[in-house]
Amino acid sequence: MRYAQLVMGPAGSGKSTYCSAVAEHIENEKNSVMVVNLDPAAERFKYTPTVDIRELIHVDDAMDDEILHFGPNGGLVFCMEYLIENEDWLREQLGEDDDDYILFDLPGQIELYTHMKTVKQLADLLQHWGFNVCSVMLIDSQFMVDGPKFISGTMAALSVMINLELPHVNVLSKMDLLSKTARKHLDNYLEPDARALLSDVKSHTSWGKKYRHLSKCIGQMIEDYSLVQFVPLNIKDEESISGLLYTINTMIQYGEDQDVRMADFDQQDSDDNAGGVEEFD
């Protein structure tokens, strides 16, 4: 069995930093891990990718082509579709080794996850190749410290969960950058409470008055069904990383097929019988 995390999220949410820190944490525990860059527009990493989509296609290839002439967003979409069309290249790059643990660092274009099928097709390919796959969506905690933004982020996460149909975990990244006041405010939203979610929705504005009932229904739905929950992550805290990895590894069943190590107890020979214990036939 092989294992994969599809690391996704908006631009600037900390995907590459996450992959670097998690890979280092796994290696420090004496386990092997690979990181695959699937962002054709990436410029630099804190890790060395084992596989790099830019060796197959770069976003500039799509933007500079005289016929295609895509913009940045269209170029990213084209590159991901080109990757799926060239699945043999990806399979060859990944190899066939059992027990692989791979982090896939995906582009920061949110529509790839919320409603387009490209990443879903990638997940289906990996599952067909014997991977247990989990989607990990990162959202910058600095943009989730008031009710309206939290509701927006929650609905985006829900859209991703429905679209990909994978074991899924939502992560609030960059917790180490929050002030104590902002962190305390964010704690009100980690356990969904419709009243807390609506407390910052401004009812005195024309928008707030018109759509307050809709916001209330969304907040109540989140609370009643616990559809979306978030795991806060402080990338500088090893215990925080370890706790998140434990959750993810449980979801993808990592390690469950490993043999249990048993101590080898040899029976004592009768000549070695110590302490004067009498032996009976």
UniProtKB/TrEMBL annotation:
GO function terms (MF aspect): GTP binding; GTPase activity
Alphabetical keyword list: GTP-binding, Hydrolase, Nucleotide-binding
Family matches, as Pfam families: ATP_bind_1 (PF03029)
InterPro entries on file: Gpn, Gpn3, P-loop_NTPase
Record text on subunit structure and interactions: Binds to RNA polymerase II (RNAPII).
Functional description taken from the UniProt entry: Small GTPase required for proper nuclear import of RNA polymerase II and III (RNAPII and RNAPIII). May act at an RNAP assembly step prior to nuclear import.
Homology family: Belongs to the GPN-loop GTPase family.
Protein name: GPN-loop GTPase 3
Record organism: Aphis craccivora
